[in-house]
Write a structure and sequence with these properties.
- Chains A, B: This is HTH-type transcriptional repressor CytR.
- Chains A, B: InterPro entries: HTH_LacI, LacI/GalR-like_sensor, Lambda_DNA-bd_dom_sf, Peripla_BP_I.
- Chains A, B: GO terms for molecular function: DNA-binding transcription factor activity; transcription cis-regulatory region binding.
- By secondary structure, chain A is of the alpha/beta class.
- Chain A folds into three domains: about 45 residues, 434 Repressor (Amino-terminal Domain); about 120 residues, Response regulator (Rossmann fold, 3-Layer(aba) Sandwich), CATH 3.40.50; about 130 residues, Response regulator (Rossmann fold).
- Helix content of chain A is about 40%, strand content about 15%.
- Chain A contains twelve helices and eleven strands.
- In chain A, helix 1 packs across helix 3, helix 7 packs parallel to helix 8 and helix 9 crosses helix 10.
- The longest helix of chain A has 16 residues.
- The radius of gyration of chain A is 26 Å and the shape is elongated.
- Chains A and B meet through helix 4, helix 5, strand 2, helix 10 and helix 11 of A and helix 4, helix 5, strand 2, helix 10 and helix 11 of B.
- The structure holds a DNA duplex.
Chain lengths: ~325, ~325
Amino acid sequence: MARTTSKDVARAAGVSQAAVSLVLGDKWRGRVSEPTAERVRDAARQLGYRPNLAARNLRLGRTRTALLVVPALTNEFFARVYTGAARIAAEHGFGVVLYPSPEGIGPARDPFDSAAAALDGVIASSMAADALAAIRGDELPLVMLDSDPDEGPGAATVNLDLADGMRQITDHLLALGHRRFLHIASAISSWTFEVRARALSSALKDIPGAELRTVTTPLSIDASRDATEAALTAPGPRPTALICDDDILAVGACKAARRLGLRIPEDLSVTGFDDLTLATAVDPELTTVRLPAEHVGERGMTALLAVLDGRPANADDLPVQLVVRNSTAPPPAQP
Amino acid sequence: MARTTSKDVARAAGVSQAAVSLVLGDKWRGRVSEPTAERVRDAARQLGYRPNLAARNLRLGRTRTALLVVPALTNEFFARVYTGAARIAAEHGFGVVLYPSPEGIGPARDPFDSAAAALDGVIASSMAADALAAIRGDELPLVMLDSDPDEGPGAATVNLDLADGMRQITDHLLALGHRRFLHIASAISSWTFEVRARALSSALKDIPGAELRTVTTPLSIDASRDATEAALTAPGPRPTALICDDDILAVGACKAARRLGLRIPEDLSVTGFDDLTLATAVDPELTTVRLPAEHVGERGMTALLAVLDGRPANADDLPVQLVVRNSTAPPPAQP
DNA sequence: CGGACGACGTTATACGTAAAACTTCGATCA
DNA sequence: TGATCGAAGTTTTACGTATAACGTCGTCCG
């Protein structure tokens, strides 16, 4: 037997389908009498009526659904972004569907081939430019998270003040006395990492005696460990501080140090970025920059709702905060 | 200007809307001539036509969308389950929408209030019985992951052979010579943890001299650390091996050990469960049981597709595999 | 006392798609 | 030659909802 429709409820309550729609849609003041409304509500409850969303969406021309595009959900940062976005969405009767972007998922040509993709808008995180183009093709409202503001003219953006985070790291390390730095950078070319690199070199530019080398690596513990090990055994004076683009990279860097018999933080300081669960799971706990991932998701969803309402979206950068733990200390005395 | 509809395409191609539907629906052999079909396809491409899914869903009475209910996406295990499910779904033109179950999300009364919840079926992971009841009320096809098979009579289930995993752990520890065990158990009361406890006590039942104590704790590093510390400083002979329900708990347990000046694995062996990224991030790397999380998601989605097709679903348990790393060793010599 | 109005509904329509039922037209065949 | 058939479409309908447009009746006021 088929699902119960508003027509079934109408029959049970002895009214027309339109009356059911009015009552359940909460738009009946002065249109339906209280006793009748009550009868309708009773019948609906009795029959376990649930409106057919496909029909409603078709009628209203909107779906109250947003698409969240993320690189990978298994990265805790993006899982937290989703959580924040979904909370705000739920408060406004919206749903959030995910699209893990880069080949993470099967043969769908683009996000909009997905069956669930009857969308009101899109929130895109750390988008590559080409994927962005595909999205902008469909003229859906778009909010970009943690992405180059210049890429998407006209689109709302929610950005973290990553440059300030990098500055806080360098201030901290410089104050401890470090001068020789190695930047463990993500090989992923995206705004979120490029801005770190720029902030880092600009922060060290005017420091006398400061040296900065860089090594890039895929975003995994093992890759970072190998890349760091290679860099640390290279000829020349050894850096005293490793500045990592991400906690995951920092964990790999720590593993490399351990392999080489270097103690952290006595022989080598290491910093992360993100403040994932990982950061406090390892020993020593990582000095890192805490990123308010849930807030990013919340602000992203809030911005999308604003855009859909034709309101302007708040465009301030979200502040980030250095968290000093046990992976940083003054550099060892000069040999 | 509104989105282009099949009617627009029809006008551009000089045919009727029905012809467009036939051609694009790939059901036109013998109904439309090849030149006409090509004209329609051209027009569709030209106009960037994308079918309105709300309308299609309404017409067809199905949405090609499944709901995945998980406790928390920030737990890597469930993020991986999602990834697996979404991959299989995409291969079959399905979408997956998430419902983080336990109060994780706003005021939605139940999963089906969610705006995106126009569903063909449900995959529920680690469900509590009451939430399950709410779901079964709607007579949607249901697949249960890692849940008590007795709870959901008639529903398809995808289970891991967790009992075997626990047996592999005890075999390993017993072979190393351990006899005094402390079980760091999750305070969450669900099948997935209950089955571990049962398997553990039954495995130790017939071992002469084996002792088993248990302490329960919330599923977080800090909570586990505190609970473990308390248990290890309790009077009586100290256990030589900690068997943890989850890698997260194991990491907390390691922290407690470190606080108490105990070395792992020399003074104390520790085992985890899941084989998350965490397990190889910490030092020493954890001996743990690898759970094929992606496979769980894949099998869950495959089972749901089978149920929707009226085919029987594969009900075999998924095998799990002990991974021996550096957190286990023979117990210290008796004092 | 007539008509304007409000309360309480109902009827009718549109949203965009898929597909069943129908039309037209030439070719085939007994 | 008249019935039949297949190709190539078109016309029509249904899916379930929200809402605009339309009735009907009693009341109140000028």
